[in-house]
Design goal:
It is a single chain. The protein is of the alpha+beta class and 166 residues long. It contains 4 helices and 8 strands. A two-stranded antiparallel sheet has the order 1-4. A two-stranded antiparallel ribbon has the order 2-3. The chain has a two-stranded antiparallel ribbon with strand order 5-6. A hairpin with a 2-residue loop joins strand 2 and strand 3. The longest helix has 22 residues.
Length: 166
């Protein structure tokens, strides 16, 4: 499990020269998740308040502020956490993808920022969930149209029982 491995990159049937992989946690092996979790666990030291969500290689820090707190102060505090995480990354030789980093203020009426994805769900900073609902409605329209086209062939009970099996 811990020995060096040889890797090649294949593109359209053409292979690169061999690359030696060493001193790494190999993705897809049984020990990879617990070893990664052990290595990544101390990033939580950057979180003295609120709570952190750590899942695989994803780190999210959530801090609750009084709703009257100025967004400038909220963002400044979150930037302090971000700096702490970056410092941890430099010490731990972990690189973060800047395109995946966001500081977002969630507030029903006073929110700076743009919609974002969290574990696959599209969320807007006002928490209306309109983008996610619109996407679901779009996917459902096709299914509902198909059901309407065949409703004369089945009873409602038959359609419900059929949809459970598919």
């Amino acid at each position: 499990y811990l020995s060096d491995r040889i890797s090649k990159v294949a593109v359209e049937g053409v292979f690169s020269d061999p690359i030696v992989l060493m001193n790494m946690i190999f993705q897809g092996t049984v020990l990879a998740p617990p070893l990664w979790n052990l290595f990544f666990a101390d990033i939580a030291s950057c979180c003295s308040e609120g709570f952190a969500s750590i899942y695989a290689d994803e780190f999210n820090q959530f801090i609750e502020f009084d709703k009257r707190t100025n967004n400038t102060n909220v963002i400044a505090r979150m930037q302090e956490v971000q700096t702490c995480v970056h410092n941890w990354g430099r010490k731990s030789r972990v690189e973060f993808d800047p395109k995946k980093e966001h500081i977002i203020v969630l507030h029903p009426s006073d929110w700076p920022g743009v919609p974002f994805k969290l574990l696959g769900c599209k969320i807007d900073p006002a928490l209306t969930m309109e983008m996610e609902i619109d996407e679901l409605v779009g996917r459902m329209k096709v299914k509902i149209a198909a059901l309407v086209r065949v409703k004369h062939l089945y009873t409602i009970a038959e359609m419900i029982s059929q949809s459970k099996t598919h």
